[in-house]
Amino acid sequence: MKKLLAIVIVCFIVATSYIAYVITQRQAMLKNVAHHNDSWAVSQSVSEYMRLEHRLAAYGLGVESGTLDEVRLRLDIMIGRLDILQHGTLRQLIDADPHQQETLDRLHQVLTKLEAGVYGDAPLDVRAMLAEMADLDGAMTAMASYAAEYDAQRIDTQYEALTRLHRIYTGLAGGLIVCGISLIVLLLYHNRLLNRAHDGMQVLAADLRIASGELQVRNDKLAHAAHHDALTGLPNRMLFREQLEARIAARAEGIHVAILLLDLDGFKNVNDTLGHDTGDALLRAVAGRLSRLVEPGDLVCRLGGDEFIVLSAALSEREACALADRVIAEIALPYLLAEREIAVATSVGLALSQEGVGSDELLKHADLALYEAKRLGRGRVCVFRPELHTRILDRTSFEVDLQKALANGEMEVFYQPVVDAGTRAVSGYEALLRWNHPLRGQVAPSDFIPVAEETGIIQELGEWVLRTACADAARWPAPLKVAVNLSPVQFRSKALVQTVTSALAHGRLEPGRLELEITESVLLDRNAQTLQTLRSLKGLGIQIAMDDFGTGYSSLGSLRGFPFDKIKIDRSFIRDVTTGSDAIAIVELVIGVARNLGMATTAEGIETEEQFECLKRLGCDQMQGYLFGRPMPLGDLPELGETPAHEPATRAGVFLPPLSRIGLG
Q1: In degrees, to the nearest 5, what angle opens at C-alpha 97 toward C-alphas 95 and 102?
Q2: CA–CA separation, 175 vs 179, rounded Å?
Q3: Same domain, yes or no: 364 and 421
Q4: Same domain assignment for residues 460 and 524
Q5: Could you tell me if 435 and 514 lie in one domain?
Q6: Which of 147, 175, 203 is the last residue of a domain?
Q7: How far apart are CA 384 and CA 378, in angstroms?
């Protein structure tokens, strides 16, 4: 439609422009026709010439009307006519025929000669002059006839041109009328389309209003989803932040903003053993209990995972602690989910707002308080105090020192002997890591090993211990063995077998002289990779021992399903073996099971002769403890004498996966 309207408008413009041009041409033609009186001008010139000749003849005959003044008047008129014939459009007529130019030249000579006679001093020869003028009469008459014929032709030509222009003008005018009618029709059609479009726009506007309402509802739902947890329906971390900042900014004098941060102890076990659906149901149940505990105006949020937080703007420290105790007691009550009774516990970190403390810092205070509560044990409330922050700074400094310890040569491998129960001869040594800090002194493994595991430094430490132990044992006389502790973290690495192989190759130690000790927690993840790793290590000729048997997750099925060579009985059973009948029964049971499965046994923590004799009588194969020797550096081992020192405490060559449990000794 737009293109069609544009074409019509362009046609209007072109037609109007051309009509203007045609009108201009028509006016020019009419002007030319008006100027086509040349034949009349020539005829008048011939008539004037005849009058001049008549007056000259009358003057020569002495007739009363033939005066000299009359001759002079006619002569002046004729000279003027001659000037007209020599200029303007008459000039074109004269130039068109050479004969006419010759006639005009003769006329000019005659008039010049007559003028000299009329106005000169010499007497005028009238007869001779009349004779000369008579000779020009025919030529002048012929000029008048030629001019009439020439004008008639020009007028016909101009008339035809005017007729043609009239036809064009008429056609254009008709075309403009048609275009005008077409334009009116198009405008009417366009107006109808506009009306139809307007009706459609009204319908669309109504639809848009409906859609806008639906969009607003959807936006409200999205806003709710953005600020609430999808699983529990509780406010999420984003809404908690907004509310915390608003309440801190608007708190009144003497009224604290209190936050209670908590997570669930044992939730991971629920997820792992009963499945994520049960875990989700447990989280919803916990959210419901927390929502019922708080007062109106308080906010219960789920920050993520099994972490919840309670925000209150009107609690004192005593009231907040009372609420935390109620939360701990309520969460600890059993849950009946999927026809199972489930029990979880929680600890609470409590932080109260202070002047100049922002939302991020307050949340950090609650996190530190929760960390301290968990460190003290389950089911506790810990209120943030400034000394907690100091303790964290000290821990950070401790971590920094631990990261530099290996590079600074502060780490050393000690060795504790393992003896044969029958002969008390040393059969090997267990490698134990020690840290000699330049300022802190001897740092207990129970202090730095957990930190190393949390921060990931254990990877570098474990690699160095394994490589150092293999290199040291290679210098010992055969068949002395070295035992190195591994961890469940290590078994999640597919490169463990390659790691051990590289350590053996680095130290040039025979595989049969290396014993790897793993804890029972490795067996929790009874998957194909764990079994394949154990079998691959056994395939290298390495001995595999289960450490701390009986303290955690032991089962006879574990001993049956995995290829162990030795069981190490934990010192907690050995301590009471001479005084407690139950301890003796457990140790005797373990030794009997191991013997029937073809596994050797090692008792840890032997400190007295009575313990030694008791374990020997029960049939234990090997023993280890202070009775036979404390952990000591390689060069101080009396059984080996002077042995070249092992490589310095720096990483070398091949990368090894982390050993997240190093022997504590």
Answers
A1: 85
A2: 6
A3: no
A4: yes
A5: yes
A6: 175
A7: 17
How far apart are alpha carbons 80 and 71 in whole angstroms? 14
Q: How far apart are CA 278 and CA 290, in angstroms?
A: 18
Q: How many CB atoms lie within 10 A of CB 456?
A: 12
C-alpha torsion sign, points 173, 177, 178, 183: positive
> Which token pair is 131?
């004779």
Q: Contact at 8 Å (CB) between 147 and 153?
A: no
| Domain boundary, last residue among 144, 175, 206 | 175
Give the CATH number of the domain where residue 27 resides: 1.20.120
**379/430 same-domain check:** no
Specify the CATH number for the domain of residue 512.
3.20.20.450
- Which run of H or E residues covers position 508? none
In terms of domains, do 165 and 243 share one?
no
Residue pair 459/637 in contact by the 8 Å Cβ criterion: no
| Residue 82 domain-assigned (yes or no) | yes
Q: Which of 427, 431, 540 is nearest to 484 (CA)?
A: 431
Its pTM stands at 0.52
Taking only the tens place, the pLDDT of each residue in 342-389 is 889 999 999 988 777 888 888 888 988 898 888 787 788 998 888 877
How far apart, in whole angstroms, are the C-alpha atoms of residue 495 and residue 488? Answer: 14
Phi, psi of 240 (to 5 degrees): -60, -45
Q: CATH number for the domain including 241?
A: 3.30.70.270
Are the C-beta atoms of residues 16 and 177 closer than 8 Å to each other? Answer: no
Give the chain's domain count: 3
Phi, psi of 63 (to 5 degrees): -70, 150
Does 133 share its domain with 267? no
User: Which residues is 340 bridged to in the sheet?
Assistant: 337
pLDDT of residue 648: 40
Q: How far apart are the first and last CA of the chain?
A: 95
112-137 average pLDDT score: 81
DSSP category for residue 646: P
**Which helix H or strand E contains 310, and what residues bound it?**
strand 307-312
Structural domain for 254, as ranges: 237-384
| Tokens representing residue 201 in the block | 């726009």
Residue 73 corresponds to which tokens in the numbers above? 């008047």
pLDDT (tens digit, 9 = 90+) per residue, 316-337?
Answer: 888 889 999 999 999 999 999 8
Report residue 569: phi and psi, to 5°: -80, 130
Q: Which pLDDT value is given to residue 53? A: 80
The two most distant CA atoms of the chain are separated, in Å, by: 196
- Measured between alpha carbons, how far is 404 from 155 in angstroms, rounded to an integer? 120
Residues 510 and 556 in one domain: yes
Contact present, 480 and 514 (Cβ < 8 Å): no
Residue 191 lies in a domain: no
**Are residues 479 and 622 part of one domain?**
yes
Q: What is the 3 state secondary structure string of 410-447?
A: CEEEEEEEEEECCCCCEEEEEEEEEEEECCCEEECHHH
pLDDT digits (tens, 9 = 90+) for 249-295: 776 555 578 899 999 988 888 887 788 898 999 999 999 999 998 88
Compute the CA torsion angle 169, 172, 177, 182 (nearest 10 deg). Answer: 180
Task: Decide: 245 and 318 in contact? Cβ < 8 Å.
Answer: no
Q: At what angle do helices 137-227 and 2-34 cross, to 10 degrees?
A: 160
Identify whether 534 is part of a domain.
yes
Domain-located, residue 316: yes
Collapsing DSSP states into helix, strand and coil, what is residue 578? coil
User: How many angstroms separate the Cα of 549 from the Cα of each of 405, 457, 539?
Assistant: 32, 27, 23
